[in-house]
Each structure stands twice: as C-alpha cells, then as structure tokens.
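The step that takes the researchers longest sounds almost clerical: writing a folded protein down as plain text. Below is the pair of lines this work produces for a single protein:

——
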Amino acid sequence: MAEQHPFKWRHFQSDIILLCVRWYVRYALSYRDLEEMMLERGLHVDHTTIYRWVQHYAPELERRCRPYLKSTSDSWRVDETYVKVKKEWVYLYRAVDSHGKTLDFFLSSTRDAQAAKQFLLKTLTASHCSEPRVINVDKNAAYPKAFAELKETGHIPESCELRQVKYLNNLVEQDHRFIKRLTKPGMGFFSFETAW
C-alpha cells in the first residue's frame, strides 16, 4: 500500500512547513521569531501553526532520518542536564561519541539508577550506535549501578569499561550549552511530548 502524502490538506506548501520545522529544531528561534521571519517573506503564518507543524512533523523527520545516520565511535560520553517541563526541572540524559555526534537522549523526572539504566539501554539498542568500548561518565553514583546491572544481563559487552573521570566528559558538558541556547527562547516545555 502506498504511503499517503504527509502534507495533504495543508494550507501551506510542504517546503515552507519543512523550512519552519528545520529552523526551529536547528537554531535558537522561538515560534514568534519564525512567525516574524515568515511575515518578512510575505507569508502570514501564526506562531501556533508553526508549533503544530513542529509537533506533527519533527518526530516523523527524526524517524525517517535515523536509519541514514552515520555509525558512531565506540567511546561514549554520557551526562545529564536540567530542562524545564511544566515549569518544573527535569533531567535530560544525553550521550555523545568522541567526535561530538549525538547518540541519543532521554527525559526523566528522576536522577537515579533506574533512569540511567533506561537511558543506557535505549542508547545501546539504537541502530546507529556502535557497541561501546568505553563509557565516560561523571561522578554521579547512579551510573556504576546501572552499568553493572546492564553488564550482568548481557546488554553491555564484557570488554566495555566504565570510566568515572570528570574531565573526560568535557565534550558533552560543553554541548549542553547548545541545548540550553535552543530551549531558552521557548521558556521551557509544557509536556514531555513537546520537549521530546
């Protein structure tokens, strides 16, 4: 069965929709900034319409692009940071490889071994991630426990090593600034789904 046209019945052309979605997810722009930019180009697009486009098309674009991502290196850097969801701080777990490519991310309301385990399991099962040789983490006590449990169950290879050295994680720590810069114009998120 042929896949239906994803832009059917939309008022605006697909390239306008995709441009707005791409600019929103890539650059530190708010929905109102995009509304103003489209108005400068002669298009009257409300900021709530752009919000709906992002919510509808961003997950689909991510799903379609994921199989084409280049494989990553076997040295991982894992860390967590805070973002606001419903005016409350939640934890954004992130992993990057030794070249700074994002492996995966995970939102959690807790910062414990269970959340770390869920995140590591999600990253290990991602199709574009290569098997880790070493996982670098900070001094958070949740990571060794989660690592040991996953190694025990066979999800992490026996040869993989966990390193808790603060300065080896500088790459992901610096990358958090980029994420914060993207989330700041929107003043946080209103649900886990929109944050994702």
Remarks:
- The domain at 75-195 is CATH 3.30.420.10 (Nucleotidyltransferase; domain 5).
- The first strand starts at residue 75 and ends at 85.
